[in-house]
Amino acid sequence: MTDILMPALSPTMEEGVLAKWHVKVGDVVSAGDVIAEIETDKATMEVEAVDEGEVTDILVAEGTEGVKVNTPIARLKDEGGAAAPKPAAKAEEAPKAAAAPVEAPEAAAPVASAPAAPKSAVGERIFASPLARRIAAQNGVDLKSIKGTGPHGRIVKRDVEGAPKGAAQPAASTATAAATTGIAPRQAPSLAQMGIPDGSYDLIPLDGMKKAVARRMVDSIQNVPHFPLFIDCEIDQLMAVRAKVNKMLEPQGIKVSVNDFVIKAAALALKMVPEANASYTPEGIAMHHNADVSMAVAIDGGLITPIIRKAETKGLAQIATESKDLAKRARERKLKPEEFQGGTFSVSNLGMFGIKQFSSIINEPQGCIMSVGAGEQRPVVKDGQIVPATVMTVTLTCDHRVVDGATGARFLQAFKPLIEDPVAMLA
């Protein structure tokens, strides 16, 4: 018998909801078949089987919440007939097979053509997903030399990609990295310890997203040396240009928002000041080739940051179309991991709520996040006269390890004229 385990579908996932089964007891599955849907802290994802056999047991019912990663959720009878007796556990026993997430769009290709599961020199099976095996075969990568980072050490796509032929792809150990810091996370005091009596409040349990957001924000604020830079931008011309652009795009059903202008201007400014489009890593400063702009989207229970890839290459109409689609699917929790993981810069806009000014927490490993306030009528001095203008305050929060004050200031100097005179963005 082979246990199917609750997979880790993202680096931050600790537990999830088993939303739906696509198989039932008695069904025969092949490697690559979609067997279930799992709700993570960010999205709903399909899960593939990595082994062949007959489903003999469904161990976790549909709709079950809080299923821990690596918990057995179903059981398969070994391929080829009668159930094989389960051997006694041994220290050197190979890890149990786990369900594998759909790792990338190319996973939708026919898995039947994937190479057979390889075995090591001593005959033990090497545990790897079908997609990882196919990529290894195509690239001539020796799976025996690779350390898997999937459930129970299973080799997955990210372990194989970029690995030299016959060489290992080093796997980062989050647990080891955390252990080397020597800093134990502070536990928040209980309400009883704070003198708040039972029965005087309603307790809403934390779901996966709340836990993930809380953990990432605490890690960021503790580990990243933040500092903010503020600048005021006059956006009267932007509002006028936006009205004209939307009138032209109205027959196509496209409406460009102020945030779409901000994303485009930020992307162009990042190309003008590439030092701001960077991330801190223990190995060095990563200078990103493209401006992949993450936009903060509020959803039920938390926040998610879908990404406009290569925003510097896209027009306002395309950015508007993509941002609307991404925001819609984010609220429906239908984003793929590659659509919200891996941005190089973030934009958070609370202007629609009337917030004048705020500072955001950096979304690691990005080097900056831009916070956009509401445009409002303010008195400004022009040619010695006080006149009204629509002013929007923008805050750039920087990771000082990557973006120092001078670099951040140069970025804002590049951003300000673009947002104040957006005709330059239409050229």
From TrEMBL:
Where the record annotates domain Peripheral subunit-binding (PSBD), the positions are 127-164
Q: Which GO terms describe its molecular function?
A: dihydrolipoyllysine-residue acetyltransferase activity
Enzyme Commission number(s): 2.3.1.12
- Which Pfam families does the UniProt entry name for this protein? 2-oxoacid_dh (PF00198), Biotin_lipoyl (PF00364), E3_binding (PF02817)
Q: Which cofactor does it need?
A: (R)-lipoate
State how the cofactor is bound.
Binds 1 lipoyl cofactor covalently.
Keyword Signal found: no
Residues forming the Lipoyl-binding domain are 1-77
Q: Into which EC class is this enzyme placed?
A: transferase
Disordered: region residues: 78-102
Catalysed reaction(s)? N(6)-[(R)-dihydrolipoyl]-L-lysyl-[protein] + acetyl-CoA = N(6)-[(R)-S(8)-acetyldihydrolipoyl]-L-lysyl-[protein] + CoA
Report which superkingdom the organism of origin falls in: Bacteria
Q: What InterPro entries would the database entry show?
A: 2-oxoA_DH_lipoyl-BS, 2-oxoacid_DH_actylTfrase, Biotin_lipoyl, CAT-like_dom_sf, E2/Pdx1, E3-bd_dom_sf, LAT1, PSBD
UniProt KW keywords? Acyltransferase, Lipoyl, Pyruvate, Transferase
What Gene3D superfamilies has UniProt attached to this entry?
Answer: 2.40.50.100, Chloramphenicol acetyltransferase-like domain (3.30.559.10), E3-binding domain (4.10.320.10)
Similarity comment: Belongs to the 2-oxoacid dehydrogenase family.
What is this protein for, i.e. what is its function?
The pyruvate dehydrogenase complex catalyzes the overall conversion of pyruvate to acetyl-CoA and CO(2). It contains multiple copies of three enzymatic components: pyruvate dehydrogenase (E1), dihydrolipoamide acetyltransferase (E2) and lipoamide dehydrogenase (E3).
Assembly behavior: Forms a 24-polypeptide structural core with octahedral symmetry.
NCBIfam families recorded for this chain?
A: PDHac_trf_mito
Q: What is this protein called?
A: Acetyltransferase component of pyruvate dehydrogenase complex
Q: Which organism is it from?
A: Brevundimonas faecalis
